[in-house]
Each structure stands twice: as C-alpha cells, then as structure tokens.
Amino acid sequence: MDTWMRFMSNDGGVVFGRVEGGYLHEYESLEQPVPTGAVLSTRALTPLAPCAPGKVVALWNNFHALAAKLDKPVPSHPLFLLKPASSVIGAGEPIRRPAGYAGKIVYEGELGIVIGRRCRNASIEEAAQAIFGYTLVNDVTAADLLNENPHFPQWCRAKGFDTFCCIGPAIVSGFAWQKAHLTTTLDGVERQNYPLADMVFSPAEQVSLISQDLTLEPGDMIACGTSVGVGSIKDGATVTVAIEGIGRLSNTLSAAGAVTAGAAAAAEASAV
Amino acid sequence: MDTWMRFMSNDGGVVFGRVEGGYLHEYESLEQPVPTGAVLSTRALTPLAPCAPGKVVALWNNFHALAAKLDKPVPSHPLFLLKPASSVIGAGEPIRRPAGYAGKIVYEGELGIVIGRRCRNASIEEAAQAIFGYTLVNDVTAADLLNENPHFPQWCRAKGFDTFCCIGPAIVSGFAWQKAHLTTTLDGVERQNYPLADMVFSPAEQVSLISQDLTLEPGDMIACGTSVGVGSIKDGATVTVAIEGIGRLSNTLSAAGAVTAGAAAAAEASAV
C-alpha cells in the first residue's frame, strides 16, 4: 500500500507524490508515476484534492443493503450520473450551500476509484490493472432539487454544484477494499457504517462495464455509490467519511455567502 | 463575425485560430485569443472538433414548440444533464454504435454555446460577455437505454457514449442567433427546421443561470436543447446539422466494429 497526495507549494505550483513519514516523494504525475527525485516536507505544503478528475462517474443503487431498504431490485448494469470537475474539492475545504437554495443538503459517504490509465472496453483484468488506487468521497446532493420538476429528474444539477464532490485526503494504491468498512460521522456522531464487500458491482467490474460506454482517463474517478444511513447536513455541520487504511475526509457545510476569505482564496488558488 | 477552428497539423500538434479564405491565422488558444503571427493553409491541416470542452451541459425541453408537442410545461430553470468530454467528436468523424447495443439511436440538432472565460454567478450581461461563440451540435442518444431501468432514468449513460457529442465544424463569434434557423437532414432529407428564437432560455440566460450552479470554464459547452423533428438514425446514415452563418456538421453512424481503420486512427490521434 502506498499513499498518494497532491499539494500546493508555496510558489503556487501543484506537486503530486507518495507520502511517507511526513515527506512527499514527488512523482511526475498520476499518469506517469515516475519519481522526480525531489523530497519535500509536507508541513510546508497545502493539501489539495488528491487528483483533478476530468469527470466523476457516480453510481446509484450499488449496495445490496440500500437496495433492500429502498425496495429496489439490484441493477444489472451500473446506474450512473456524472458530476462535473468543477464540483470537486479536497479535504478541509468548505461545502458551499448554493445561493438561493434553502432546502435539504445530503451527505453520502462512498469509496472512490481513481483511474490510472486510459481505459476503453476493458476486460475485468485490464480494469483491475487500470485502477491507480482508492480514495474517499462525500457525494453531496441538494436533495429537494432532485424531483423538483416532475418531468425531468435533476440528478446532474442536484449533485453537480460547485463543492458538491468532496474527495481525499489521499489515494491509496494496493488497498484491499474487500474487508474494509466505511463510516460517515456527522458532527462526530456515526451515521453510516457499512462493509464495502456489500457492493453490487466490484471496483474492477465498475471500471470494466463503464469503460464499455465511455473512455475513462487517468485521474477520472468513479464514486462507488453509498449504502444505508444517508442524511441531511445542517449549515455549519461537519461530515467525516473514513475508511481504515485510507484516512478521514472532513468537510463543513457553509451557509451561502458564509465562506471565509481564507477558504475562498484557497479554493480560487486550487482551481487555477 | 469570425470563424474559429481547431486542426491537427502534420506533426500531430493541435493548432487553433481564425479561418479566412482558406488560411488559419493561428491564436494562442480560445482562452487567450492572442495571434501568434503564424498563418497556415487549411489544406495542409486535419480538422478537429473546434474546442475541447471539459464538460458539456445539455439542456432538455428548451424550445416552446417541443414543449407543446410533448405537452410539458416550459421549465422555470434550465433542465440539464452532463455529457462527458470523452463523448466529443468533430465534423466528419464517425458516430460509433455502442458494442452490444442494437437499439434505437437518435439525432438532435442543436445550437452550441462555447464559453470563452471562467464564469461563476454571472449576471446576464457578464454571461453574454463570457460567450466566445456558437457552434453546431448533434446530441446523440441511445434512446432505448433512457428508461430501460424503471427506477433510474439513464440520461448520462444514454447520451454519454464515446462519439455521442458531435460538434463543429467551427465556432462563430459575433453570431446573431436571434434570426437564424437550424436544420437537420438525415441522408439529405430535411427532418428539423426550427427558429432559434423559439428558445425558452436565451444563450445569455442559460450561461447566467447555469453559472449559479456550476463554474463554467473556457472551452466548456452548453448544448441549447433541440426542437421538434427528432428521429432515429439507421447504421450507415448521415446526419447533417446546419445553421446559415455557422456551417454544416455531418457525421455518419457506423455499426459496432465497422469504423474504418483511417477513421479509427484519426480518432486515436485527436484523442492524444
């Protein structure tokens, strides 16, 4: 298992690499994981989302326990929507309530698959090889928008707002998801605790089947879907998604317009 | 009005610029439209999709005539889904039937808005300024997948396959869409002919409203939605979308596995 992170350095540049004992061993990129030879103390660096996905494929109804609770049949092919790159933030960055939206905002703790190499029509074996590693996802939804229009379910809009795809803090390669549990806490109170082994489509199956539809690129992400225990976040509350061996992803929901100047500046810098 | 195109040069590089009288006046990029001073004959260049959008926001139910035909109320906010960057192809490139899908494939001729500058919470005036120009879109759908699963409408999957977002051949800046008509022909037979003035949300309104939800980046596209006359494409048939002043966008549907070696090589090269 290796732990990979992305940081902003003091000069505003972005560095990526393997983190060990408080040091970043810099690599060219996720796509070309070749060491540059540079070793930097992580104390001098500002953490960013661990990758910059071109697209995020987000699965719906991919856990047996949730399917049973919703009384829906398990799907025969991954059911997914897309979250845009513009929705991605890293650990510690604020989730921003959309201006003009006073409704319910919902967390979903999920395992994230990070793609390491271009992937099209991949077999299960090729798909397994194309997985760079795993991260944590909080797949945020403006729940009241989803069915606001009775003629068109607004999955992409409700889940696509800026800051609505929290990922991080790290990508862990070689991670054995099969025996892991994911927990989500809301202001420290456990709300989700489910075994990843309950997935309908395994990570390699997801990558293989989705790659029959659309080409996956290095850095792209698949959010594996959530299980039972989803709930709403009040303004000011903090959601923490955790998997032992990957880490803890915490993000706080800010009321509209309530983002601090520092956080806004960091978000601006990381988006450049 | 200026006409902007993107090409592959003989050395495999990508060039972007203003086209006039058979020559490309090269510019740094769509984001930084500064002339490089280079002038190239377009005869030595291979056309590509005119931009490389990070995301494509595709509107549903944005024409009064179509809303009336579908007997749906006109929406109060743009209703959209996202098509991934991996679905984009240029004029002349083949639409590929997904392997394992024998169902109906549908064309939709649309106006495309190309974003020129980063756009977040834009007013109508700022939104109008952020539009780089307009292009043509064939928003392709694997229609039988849309409601294949009764519990989850698969908009992103049905419209997100590789090659399902045809755009081009050019971006025209300063284009007056208000008086223009869009036509779509199928193997030369006219199937759509509708006035763009029938749009529910104008281009500047679309950009402004969508930028309240998600940050639009230079090169991103909005497909403005289609009107009446949508229909299915048989394998081997050619769809041509045209607007006088922008040009003609033609793409042929290839049966699965039937893409010629040359087209596949061109697609591979343009994807690098």
From TrEMBL, chains A, B:
UniProt keyword annotations, A-Z: Isomerase, Metal-binding
Fumarylacetoacetase-like C-terminal domain ranges (all copies): 55-253
Record-level Gene Ontology MF annotations: isomerase activity
Keyword Metal-binding (UniProt): yes
Pfam families linked to this entry: FAA_hydrolase (PF01557)
Protein name: 2-hydroxyhepta-2,4-diene-1,7-dioate isomerase
Species this chain originates from: Paraburkholderia ginsengiterrae
Lineage start: Bacteria, Pseudomonadati, Pseudomonadota, Betaproteobacteria, Burkholderiales
